[in-house]
Amino acid sequence: MRIAMKILHFDEINSTNVYLYDKISEKNDISDAVVVASHQSAGRGMDKNKWESEAGKNLLFSIALNVNFLEAENQFKISQAVSVAIIETLSQFIDNQGLYIKWPNDIYFGDKKLAGMLIQNTIEGRMMGISIIGIGLNVNQIEFSKDIPNPISLKQISLKDFDLDELLDAMIVKIKSSVESLRSKENQDKINEKYILKSYRFGIWADYFYHNQVKSMIINGFDKYGRLLLHDKEGAEIVCDVKELQFFPPSCPPGSEAGV
Question: Would the pLDDT of 251 be above 50?
Answer without folding.
Answer: no
